[in-house]
Write a structure and sequence with these properties.
2 copies of one chain form a homodimer. The first copy, chain A, is α/β, with parallel strands linked by helices. Chain A has helices at 17-31, 40-55, 59-73, 80-95, 104-112, 125-135, 152-162, 176-185, 207-211, 225-232; strands at 4-7, 116-122, 143-147, 169-173, 189-192, 216-218. In chain A, 50% of the residues lie in helices and 12% in strands.
Chain lengths: 233, 233
């Protein structure tokens, strides 16, 4: 018996990686004046991974990592004007309209008819709250949980708080690392809705093994979610 | 009958503003090479206020605001090396040991003997979770709420979630704006523990009026909290 169904936000209900992707292009264009374009992406990813334990996820962390990468890649030659452009790119991300993915509202509505529906999203609290407010979906959820990292402990804490056993919980999301693996590991169900853009850090090497798990379901799109949920329940 | 007692974190249980203060000095020293030192603080505060609606609170926001201020104050002459120093100053803040304020552990323990005790802190989720973990106080609280902004709505949401009426709730903290005014406004009780360093943004013009409120109590230090709470309850 499923008691609680949670949706992920970024790249499950609304576009996120596309906004990062746009900024990566902007950054590459800017930095191509200083350095061979092939070096830019790997170095930026390395800076992000190095900073993750201290900065966490989100646009502000990403902006700081872009600035550090720019200084490193240019050997300190990057101009203040270019650094301001990087901050402006970060600001543009935070101001970017929230674009719902196809079928987001319908999927939440369909699931709400039969289940308690929650949002579980990770990253920068301020930015996530702002996106949720601008998404217009805020009042569709019976609860909202914004966490710093979606790992097994975070899911266990959420379920304890809501008085739900893992076997009564379904998580719906695009990220193998954040939405699928930890939920299956603690005994919950997961409906994977892959997104064409998924950040390398959110991918896992053993995604095939995950997909073979008995409590794993894969949806081609959000429109498939209600039927898959009925099958689980 | 008081059902729930919440402590603020920053500058109530652990030092925070002192770390910002240290960084302000570091920033002023750096920027004094470019501009008259009197211009630095007002411009930094103006940048922070301008960015607050988009960046929110916390070290990463502050670091981005320092970088923008450095670019503006230097008319674009600030070097990449100096910008890296600013990022390093931000990193040092995030890595700074958590220094508990005198009597923090004792106050929580004393209150726990008679009441459910919660932490309600605002700002950057990742940084606050990290500070809580490093404070060693994590398992002393029956619940932890980290919010983007401590306003009336945020407190109402927390109390609803925990099934407590405002009149059964006491908030303990140093910030008139975040810990005292909104709690009194929704009908709760507030114990104000002033800290010698309080960020200008957390101050209010009408603090005397707050202090005259019937549900306001003022503690000289955390050691006074249990007695004031007994008086309220």
């Amino acid at each position: 018996m499923i008691e609680l169904v949670a949706f992920d936000g970024d790249d499950t209900l609304w576009q996120n990686e596309s906004i990062f992707s746009m900024t990566h292009e902007r950054f590459a264009t800017l930095m191509s004046r200083y350095v061979d374009v092939d070096h830019i992406e790997p170095r930026l990813f390395a800076t992000e991974m190095r900073n993750l334990h201290l900065f966490g996820y989100g646009v502000k962390s990403f902006t700081l990592s872009m600035i550090e990468t720019a200084i490193e890649l240019s050997d300190g030659a990057v101009t203040a004007a270019d650094i301001q452009s990087i901050i402006d790119a970060g600001r543009a991300m935070l101001e970017h309209p929230v674009e719902l993915l196809d079928g987001a509202g319908d999927a939440i509505e369909a699931v709400s008819r039969t289940h308690r529906v929650m949002l579980v999203t990770k990253g920068d609290l301020f930015d996530q709250e702002s996106k949720l407010a601008r998404s217009g979906l805020g009042d569709r959820f019976s609860a909202v949980e914004i966490v710093a990292e979606k790992n097994e402990r975070a899911y266990e804490r959420i379920l304890t708080r809501h008085g739900v056993a893992p076997s009564q919980f379904v998580m719906i999301g695009n990220s193998p690392r954040s939405d699928i693996a930890p939920v299956l590991a603690i005994g919950g169900w997961a409906i994977h809705v892959p997104h064409e853009l998924t950040w390398a850090h959110e991918r896992l090497d053993d995604e095939d093994a995950l997909a073979a798990h008995g409590r794993y379901r894969r949806a081609a799109s959000l429109a498939d979610v209600p039927a898959l949920l009925a099958d689980v329940a």
